[in-house]
Specification:
single chain; alpha/beta; Rossmann fold; six-stranded parallel beta sheet; three-stranded antiparallel beta sheet; 7 helices; about 20% strand; binds 6-phosphogluconic acid
């Protein structure tokens, strides 16, 4: 049963500060309990200041493993790359071993092959057989104004894939790689970090008692562990009591 919580922070900077506090707490707990922390990063623009803040933390970087919940189908050098953004904002600034950075594969001609190879890497890292879904410690997610999360876009085939860890998402005909709903929902903690008034209408639909998850895919996210929504007031005003 998902343990769901919602916090609405006054503004973007306090949202990022709270996100940092929670991420650090979860990282330290995972390392204390298991000797390592596995965290999947979200892309887009919202998390960049969070990654910049993480760059100035003194953490046992050799015990932290970085994944991505989704990736645009471009090289890390491309301005749209989620990997490239996180490396520039954070990972290039800290002594994390290169082997602890588990980027999605985006250099295959066929994105479906890249998805398979990325999935195989996760299976090897987590030592799981095909069909078994590993539980990451933390999965960071954003949400688009259309209610998508990761690269799980409304009414796309990716929403129907339940037997894979990684699949090919589709944003306006452009391929992306994405964690599947099944993989995300295995997480010990899913942390949504959402900012901006443009997200309000979709948030109202995602939080409504009844709704269409195919139209608002963030509704599919019900992890077996914690589900924490952190919003700034601009995004969350509509939900404020
Ligand atoms: C991506 C993200 C995506 C993002 C939302 C919100 O690759 O773009 O993973 O799911 O989190 O689109 O993006 P913003 O933070 O830029 O609003």
């Amino acid at each position: 049963m998902t343990d769901k919580s919602l916090e609405i922070l006054p503004d973007k900077s306090s949202l990022i500060e709270r996100s940092l506090q929670l991420v650090l707490k979860k990282m330290v707990t995972a390392i204390e309990q298991k000797g390592q922390c596995t965290i999947a990063l979200s892309g887009g623009s919202t998390p960049k200041p969070l990654y910049e803040a993480l760059a100035s933390q003194d953490l046992p970087w050799n015990q932290i493993h970085i994944f991505w919940g989704d990736e645009r189908y471009v090289p890390a050098s491309h301005p749209d790359s989620n990997e490239g953004m996180a490396r520039q904002a954070w990972l290039n600034q800290v002594p994390i071993p290169a082997a602890n950075i588990h980027a999605m594969i985006t250099n295959e001609a066929d994105p479906a092959i890249a998805a398979q190879k990325t999935e195989q890497h996760l299976q090897e890292f987590f030592k799981v057989s095909p069909g078994v879904f590993p539980a990451l410690d933390i999965i960071l997610l954003g949400m688009g104004a259309d209610g998508h999360t990761a690269s799980l876009f409304p009414h796309t085939e990716a929403l129907q894939v339940c037997d894979r860890l990684i699949t090919v998402g589709n944003k306006d005909g452009q391929p992306r790689l994405t964690f599947t709903i099944s993989l995300i929902n295995q997480a010990h903690c899913v942390l949504f970090v959402v900012a901006g008034a443009d997200k309000q209408p979709a948030l109202a639909q995602v939080f409504a008692d009844q709704g269409d998850a195919l139209t608002y895919p963030s509704r599919f996210i019900k992890p077996q562990g914690e589900l924490i929504w952190l919003l700034d007031f601009a995004a969350g005003e509509i939900l404020a009591g």
